[in-house]
Design a protein that fits this description.
With 591 residues, the chain is α+β, with helices and mostly antiparallel strands. It folds into 3 domains: 2-148, Creatinase/prolidase N-terminal domain (Creatine Amidinohydrolase, Chain A, domain 1); 161-295, Creatine Amidinohydrolase, Chain A, domain 1; 304-587, Creatinase/methionine aminopeptidase superfamily (Creatine Amidinohydrolase, Alpha-Beta Complex). The strands form 9 sheets. It has a 6-stranded mixed beta sheet with strand order 4-3-2-1-5-6, with helices on both faces. It has a 4-stranded mixed beta sheet with strand order 8-10-11-12. Strands 21-28-27-24 form a 4-stranded antiparallel beta sheet.
Length: 591
């Protein structure tokens, strides 16, 4: 199937005089998760991870992805002509370097890339990089998928719904006032908003256009006087139309965003080059203010209502997790349980909770060797039975109307090896060190990241994914720009932000360990050196103590774990049956 698609693509490339074509993982809005309509990289390569870029020449094909997907990509690309390019691994060429080598004997090589699904910054960087590879040129006005993708899924047309003020905590009117103030500070008269979660947050609306992410396909154009939402009209109910009108917001057809930009009347416009796609970026004739969208950081700092919503969502999620964990081991011992069946069971427990809407991402339930595949997702072909032994890595989350959850636990289903115990304890130490951290307001997550890794590094161990990411308020489970990771990211950590804490170690072919809580950044103390911050655990779920080598934990680390477990029990016990309470009491007993 993939080979036939490559043949069709190459026939089109030949007609269009293109030497190569590049397929990203993105859509016109630069989302991490995209509607099926824009999953072109998956269509042309067969690789379904959330991150990766496929490049096809007339004679070769390659796919670049990061460490989360190395093992999965190797499996999914097997039997195709695609070569796997492992990002951040020594010796891996960049896309431009690879194309420079592959096209070195081609006369006047031209590379195609769809400007509608690539950000302005990415395309401009690619143009520069390819120019240095012997003068390779770039064409951006062709979408080959429109011609070769038979039965391509349509753009979603799901109805948009209001997000009540009782959960949002701030009106759209007040958010727009703050946005315009931020634009004035950047000497910008208006802005085009492309990021779907930014639009949903600004307008206090939600949708179901993207799997697990409650957003809707649209653009938002803000001027000093007007606001226009570009969206497919059939998605707007009479209730939503009345609401938009009451907020002074005009609705126009999604396809008319180009006309809106061409008719833009202000002197200048802010365009975030990392969010606005290249095609729309090039349409703008007015002066461009190329800066990060102010909304990106606004929504990361939660208001009091959102914070209480997170606590409420975590409570509901904790209740569901206890019911599941209480059920899990006896069910595995009885036999018949698989990675997929326990995923379904956990989702069923969550769906019983008030305000539950959906999962927040596809559950990662990896037993033993599958746990070493960082973003493993069980399928009918890979699903395996669970046995009362070894590790189960379970990374899951839910969307509740009042908050979004993300939690990982690694669970010993029975006897485990000494190696598994050591790895587990190293990961736990890294997790606890982040939880214990006190730091000056405005610190970068890159400055904190070493705390999660220092004990692993002493053993020559590491992980290549980030240690933490922001979490939205009934929005995307991955929210930035703040992160905790090795790579330098300048986004500051500030009070009111949520961030996950999820170090891990993965031994290919053996097992993986990851432990994750969602945290809230709160004030700690204020001194002559400024405001210091700390982390508050929002997640309410016991951490398995059976694999711990207690002697490897410092007294401070043991104290943190005991304190955390006491808090988990006190918060959850009133909502559980007596049998579940007894189980939780054992699961949280001091070590």
């Amino acid at each position: 199937m993939i080979q036939k698609r490559l043949e069709q693509l190459r026939a089109l490339m030949h007609r269009e005089h293109l030497s190569a074509f590049i397929f990203p993982s993105t859509d016109p809005h630069q989302g991490e998760y995209v509607p099926d309509h824009w999953k072109g990289r998956e269509f042309i390569s067969g690789f379904n991870g959330s991150a990766g870029t496929a490049v096809v020449t007339m004679n070769a094909a390659a796919l670049w992805t990061d460490s989360r997907y190395f093992l999965a990509a190797e499996e999914q690309l097997a039997g195709t002509e695609y070569q796997l390019m492992k990002l951040k691994i020594e010796g891996t060429p960049t896309i431009a370097e690879w194309l420079g080598k592959e096209l070195q004997d081609t006369q006047s090589p031209e590379v195609g890339i769809d400007g509608m699904v690539n950000s302005a910054s990415d395309v401009k960087a690619l143009i520069s990089d390819l120019r240095q590879q012997g003068g390779i040129t770039v064409r951006t006005n062709l979408d080959p998928l429109a011609q070769i993708w038979q039965q391509r899924p349509p753009i979603p047309m799901n109805a948009v719904e209001l997000y009540p003020l009782e959960y949002a905590g701030e009106s759209t009117h007040d958010k727009l006032r703050r946005i315009r103030k931020a634009l004035r500070e950047r000497h910008a008269d208006g802005m085009l908003m492309s990021a779907l979660d930014d639009i949903a947050w600004t307008l206090n609306l939600r949708g179901t256009d993207v799997h697990c992410n409650p957003v809707f396909v649209s653009y938002l154009l803000i001027t000093s006087k007007d606001v226009t939402l570009y969206i497919h009209r059939e998605k707007l109910t009479p209730e939503v139309l009345d609401y938009l009108k009451s907020e002074g917001i005009t609705a126009d057809d999604y396809e008319n965003v180009d006309k809106g930009l061409k008719g833009y009347f202000e002197y200048n416009i802010l365009l975030d080059p990392d969010e606005v796609n290249y095609t729309l970026y090039k349409m703008v004739s007015r002066e461009k203010v190329e800066e990060e969208s102010p909304v990106k950081r606004m929504k990361t700092i939660k208001n009091d209502t959102e914070i209480e919503g997170f606590r409420s969502a975590m409570l509901k999620d904790g209740i569901a997790l206890i019911k599941f964990l209480h059920w899990l081991k006896p069910a595995v011992e009885a036999g018949g349980q698989t990675e997929m069946s326990i995923d379904q069971k956990l989702t069923a427990f969550r769906s019983e909770q008030p305000l539950y809407r959906d999962i927040s991402f596809d559950t990662i339930a990896g037993y033993q060797a599958h746990g070493a595949i960082v973003h493993y997702e069980a399928t009918a072909e890979t699903d395996i039975p669970l046995k009362p032994e070894g590790f189960l890595l379970l990374d899951s989350g839910a969307q509740y109307l009042d908050g979004t959850t993300d939690v990982t636990r690694t669970i010993a289903l029975g006897p485990i090896t000494d190696e598994q115990k050591k790895i587990y304890t190293l990961v736990l130490k890294g997790h606890i060190q982040i939880e214990l951290c006190k730091f000056p307001s405005g610190s970068s997550g890159a400055q904190l990241d070493i705390l999660a890794r220092k004990d692993m590094w002493r053993e020559g161990l590491n992980y290549l994914h980030g240690t933490g990411h922001g979490v939205g308020t009934y929005l995307n489970v991955h929210e930035g720009p703040h992160q905790i990771r090795m790579d330098w990211k300048s986004a500051p950590l500030l009070a009111g932000m949520t961030v996950t804490d999820e170090p891990g170690i993965y031994l290919a072919g053996k097992f993986g360990v990851r432990i994750e809580n969602t945290l809230l950044i709160t004030p700690y103390i204020k001194t002559e050196y400024g405001q210091f911050l700390q982390f508050e655990s929002l997640t309410l779920c016991p951490i398995d103590t059976t694999p711990i080598i207690i002697e490897m934990l410092s007294p401070e680390e043991r104290q943190w774990l005991n304190d955390y477990h006491r808090m988990v029990y006190n918060r959850l016990a009133p909502y559980l049956t007596s049998e579940e309470q007894d189980w939780l009491l054992q699961a949280t007993k001091p070590i």
